[in-house]
Every structure is written in C-alpha cells, then in structure tokens.
Amino acid sequence: MAEASAEAHIGAPAEKIWARLTDFTSYAEWNATHTSFPNGGPAELAVSATYDENMKLMGFPAEVTWTVEELEPARLLTTRGKGPMGVNLAMRYALTPDGDGTRVRIEGEFTGAAVSLMAGKLKDSAGAALTESLRRLDGLVT
Fold first, then answer.
1. What is the dihedral of CA 24, 29, 33, 38, to 10 degrees?
2. Angle 139-65-87 (CA atoms, 0-180°, nearest 5)?
3. Each residue of 16-39: pLDDT tens digit?
4. Domains located in the chain, CATH noted
5. What is the dihedral of CA 5, 19, 61, 47, to 10 degrees?
6. Is the pTM of this model over 0.85?
C-alpha cells in the first residue's frame, strides 16, 4: 500500500472551494494528475455515482473508474477507484472552516500487487501531485 496526503489553508470559504472541487468541467485547471473524463463527470454527484477518469500517475497514463463513497457538501468527498493492473485507489477531500478561510486536506491511498513494487516512488509522486493540486486550487478560488 502507498498513501499520500497534502494539506493547505486556502483563504476562501468552504462553499467556494467545494464548488470548484466538484466542477468536473474544470478539473484540469487544478488537479495535477487529471487528463480527461472520457464520458464526462458524474451525471449527478451522489453516493454510489460512478465515472471514469483518465489520469497520469508517475508519468504513466491510467484509466480509473471511480465510485463516490462519502459525500457531505462543502465538507467531505471520498471516492474509491479501480485502475489498471489491479490497482485500487481512494481519494478523500476534507474541507474544514479555519479562521478566514478553509483547511483543505487531500488523502490518497493506493493498493494492489503492482503498488508494492513501486510504493515509495508512488507515495512521493502522488504527494507532490496533491501538493501541486492544492496550490492550483488556491490560485483559482482566492
């Protein structure tokens, strides 16, 4: 298993960040691993909704089928995905009001036989991508 996380204080209200985080038409503007949604994002963002995403992880293209597992508007979005070579992914976006802004934490988890061969590199690469994603998200909402 490989886990990665990033956290940042963003000087915007949680609702504004949530609106950008869940606007699947503008994902490429902030998500550093995203390349496309071949069939568009979910028709409706709800628990059990599924959608496909093309990503680039460690420089390699990957298609992931995501399922929304937890959803609390303006607070929490957790998705679980199935990727190539038996890799399973989980992404958790948590927004917490913090003074004049919002603390945003992204956690990623990768499991599967292929992950054990590259766990260290995957953790570093995913951590850097999550940090870059938060930097871009901050620039879009503040």
1. 40
2. 95
3. 999 999 999 999 999 999 999 999
4. 2-141 (3.30.530.20)
5. 80
6. yes
